[in-house]
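Case study 2.
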Amino acid sequence: MKQLIECVPNFSEGRDMSVIKAITDEIEKVEGVKLLDVDPGKATNRTVVTFVGTPDAVIEAAFRAIKMAATVIDMSKHHGEHPRFGGTDVCPLVPVANITMEETTKYAHKLAERVGNELDIPVYCYENAALTPERRNLANCRSGEYEGLPKKLENPKWKPDFGPAKFNPRTGAIAIGARDFLVAYNINLNTTSTRRANAVAFDIREKGRPAREGNVVTGKIKKDENGNDIWVPGALKACKAIGWFIEEYGIAQVSINLTNISITPVHIAFEMSCQKAQERGMRVTGSELIGLIPKKAMIEAGKYFLRKQQRSVGIAEDEIIKIAVKSLGLDDLKPFNPKEKIIEYVLENAQDKKLVDLTAAGFANETASESPAPGGGSVSAYIAALGVSLGTMVANLSSHKAGWDDQWEEFSTWAEKGQQLKDELLYLVDEDTRAFNKIMDAFGFPKGTDAEKMVRSAAIQEATKYAIEVPFKTMQKSYESFEIINAMVEKGNPNSITDAGVGALCIRSAVIGAYLNVKVNGAGFKDKKFLSDILTQAEEIVSKTKKKEEELLNKVNSKISGS
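Prediction:
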């Protein structure tokens, strides 16, 4: 699956839109990234830009933007309300999908090194990318701001992580880091009182509230032996919050920044806000998401609320997200469109036509056309997806069967596994066609000179190898699906046992069909060792598949006949 990271650079210019556009134009030139938001502020004289894409593309776009900022922004003339020390002040990278924080940190270091070496800008690495503990905190890296930078760079303790320890009055310095995804999230209350909204905010935020003697509101603030305020922490880690009144909606809200949704996810912030509001005689009516959110966070929220209802979580992604939206009340103030608020959906290219997005009739018609793709490989993957979907259906029906309430979680787990396999197989439907197209593209390479012939031959072999691997992956994933079918035949809803049987037949056809594609795509492949190994494994899967299908059909027929 595609890896995605978000980049949120802050540029020290918020008034001259021609300067801002010159920077964002550089970002939009890079293929593989999408500019999501440009938020200029006049008072701060600062613009926050958000873009997302594949890691290498994001690094390239960030570098180009930083390079342009160094050209069009003169820090010696900059004034604004926000702390800053460079033309590109900060540039955090944020893992969004299918990538770890550790991997994201490596990309942050790669960007930092390139900026330091090629642009001669002093670079400090912060947050998860920090190379020393004291530089983890951005405030420490930026202490003294631009005005204090010349003296700071003379201090060996503050030698930049990359780039020269030399003051450039035009560019200043830059902080490049890796941090968790920050979600701006507001909780709607049935009150107009900012003070009461603040009380809930202080209850939940990590910082909490000052400890007081006697009355928790008017009592004297307690001090420690050094004369510093004593604070009572709130209920949630990685949570910042404050109460305010929104005139547009005529209600008070708890405005929350969740700085690490792996520690405090959105649904936990919502639930704790509900609890604290109720304790204070108020009710949460819904919530509001500011900006974008990763799909994973919405899926986790939907599954959380489904489990609270003792309902199966092994349902389609769209249905899980719908549960999340309704449970969090995200459509309380205005309609919530997942296609506009979930990062992965925003990034989807409407021009990228997928076979799996066709109707059933459309897929059949496309297969029956004169085009050679989709072919047997794609159809095999689709048959397997249908087979495991039948097993998943039986699991979901079983989890809701009257009298089986104590088994809902077991069947939910099976359904969840089934959904995952279904999604992987649907991905392979289109991937098989893409693999075929790679071969066609390779055959289109020029073949005039000896060098061109070598390049063409290598491209054909590489594409052919991939065209072998894709149907082999279909075989593997199809065979894995038998585990779910078998479980449903043995202990699923007996009224649906024939559905599980049909699922087994689909999987058998898928495995054998994909095997045929492995063999035909391997014809003429030069790496005989690779081909021999993969064919041996494929033949073993076919053999096991035939035995498993026969075993399952015997069980189905036995239960149908009542013997």
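The domain at 355-561 is CATH 1.20.120.680 (Four Helix Bundle (Hemerythrin (Met), subunit A)).
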